[in-house]
Amino acid sequence: MARDDAGAAGAGPALIGINGATDGHDVARMMLAGASAVGLSSAVMLRGWGVLSEAVATLDAYLAQKGLSAADLVGRAADSRRNFADMPVLDQVWRNHIPAPLARLD
Predict the structure, then answer these.
(1) What is the pLDDT at residue 8?
(2) What is the rounded distance in angstroms from the CA atom of residue 56 to the CA atom of residue 36?
(3) Which residues of the chain are modeled with pLDDT < 70?
(4) pLDDT tens digit string along 31-54?
(5) Per-position DSSP letters for the chain, written without gaps between them
(6) Rounded to 10 degrees, what is the CA torsion of 90, 91, 97, 100?
(7) CA–CA distance from 94 to each of 62, 66, 99, 102, 106 (Å)?
């Protein structure tokens, strides 16, 4: 299910997402990060085989909502990442996240 263009995720061996996936949303997150396959073994051991059909149904619903195929999802987040140097300068934004009396420290 890998995309023809590897994008920012890079060419090379396929990535398999493991360790922590418990449902279809986790599968989508790992695919967005570049995984072309995701393991759900711990979730199956804890909750049974039904986890697999639930994960597939959740992933299918997500893909339908977004109008994407599973192959379209792989690496999409990696493709949209930016370098820190390319991010806009947000001078003094910290003042929006602290109480007003403290924000007046000049």
Answers:
(1) 53
(2) 14
(3) 1-11, 102-106
(4) 999 999 999 999 999 999 999 999
(5) ---SS-GGG-SSSPEEE-SS--SHHHHHHHHHTTEEEE--HHHHHHH-THHHHHHHHHHHHHHHHHT--HHHHTTHHHHT---GGGSPP-TTGGGGGS-HHHHT--
(6) -150
(7) 35, 34, 10, 11, 13
Domain extent listing, the chain: 7-103
The whole-model pTM stands at 0.68
Rounded Cα distance between 31 and 16, Å, is: 9
Distance CA 77, CA 7 (A): 10
- Other beta carbons within 10 Å of 38: 20
* Six-digit token string for 79: 């493709």
